[in-house]
Predict the 3D structure of the following.
Amino acid sequence: MTRSHTFSSLCAGFLERLSYQTLDATRAEDFPALAEKVGTPRHGVAMFLSTAPSLFEQTIAGLSACGLASGTSRIGLEKPLGTSLESSALINDAVARVFSEDRIFRIDHYLGKETVQNLLALRFANMLFEPLWNASHIDHVQITVAETVGLEGRVGFYDGAGALRDMVQNHMLQLLALVAMEPPASFDATSIRDEKVKVLRSLRDLQAGDSVTGQYRAGAIHGVAVPGYDDELGRASDTETFVALRAHVDNWRWKGVPFYLRTGKRLPERKTEIVIQFKAVPHSIFAKQGAKAEPNRLIIGIQPQENIRLSVMAKSPGLDRGGVRLREVPLDISMPNAFAGAKRRIAYERLLLDLIEGDQTLFVRRDEVEAQWQWIDSIRAGWAENGLDPKTYTAGSWGPSSAIALVERDGVTWHD
């Protein structure tokens, strides 16, 4: 039997086990038919709920009424979990009335990405970095989540959310928490999430000048003309499609280290990366030779390529008659190459298996979600108080010029 024939047989067997049940979440009488189709599984039910925030409460109540929320059932919740701390609490209260916290799996698919998980291995399985992972040795941190796409059929959702609530509140704050967290006691859900929530609660409220918002106008991406946000929307809007922030984690480890966050749509390239910029050496013995020692930089690429790059200074080859010359040399770890024999999995595959098996390590706890919303709400309140409106930027650029000024005031340059 050939490999392709075996795969076809397995696929056909899998598809035979699938069925589809239509349901209107606003109609309680529709849920019994779903329960009948599910039947009575011996080990409970693992459910995945991806719906509008307004439908969460009705859906949970319907699942409970038809018997699908028994003590052995688990539920995965896809974002958005609200649009503010208040609305998020209402959703979480509705879910908590039926499911205990140990049966609730709030999904942030970034946590299922291999390189994001490798961030924990990089920090806590190597003695090399942990002694340097603090304000004494790190100058700043940059986190960029850049997209080339525009609305892409998400008009109704996106214009009511914007970049801050769509990307910063969940994905970017989770990345920040993993970078900044203290070493957990062990690799388990409670220990890791305890440390993440401490970071989120230590975020300083932004001050005037700590944020920049933007909205794209018509331009070109990779040489192809694209419309502006107002053109796609069909009307004017004050929703931000770009945001850049200067954040601080006010604790012992990170006091005084800025975390620069940047995300936006219609940017020049699609990439998600974390940049750890170390401080310069306190004294360069090569300065009199005319050589300049650049600070080391660790770049963790999450998408589209998963890699880890550490820049180190090395001497350029030669007889050095004109003085020693130094050059920055990258040490690259390309995940696909380093683990060429391993089968790579998409983030949702890992997370859905964890949901089925009941492992909450890569899922977000309620107190994390609410700490994230509390910080985001304070930013939006500041924007409203100061009348901050999005600056326009051309599609295909890196956002408004004020985003460059945000970091350059601190002597920093965005890693583009």
